[in-house]
Amino acid sequence: MKKNIFRSVAIAATATLMLASCDQSTPKMDAKAETPAAPSDLKIAYVEVDSIMSQYKFCKDYSLILQKKGQNIQNTLAQKNQALQAAAANFQQKLQQNAYTQEQAQAIQAGLQKQNNDLQALNQRLSAEFQTETDKYNNALRDSIQHFLKVYNKDKKYSMILSKAGDNLLYADKALDITNEVIAGLNKAYKPAPAKKEADKK
Question: CB within 8 A of 41, min separation 6: which ones?
Answer without folding.
Answer: 159
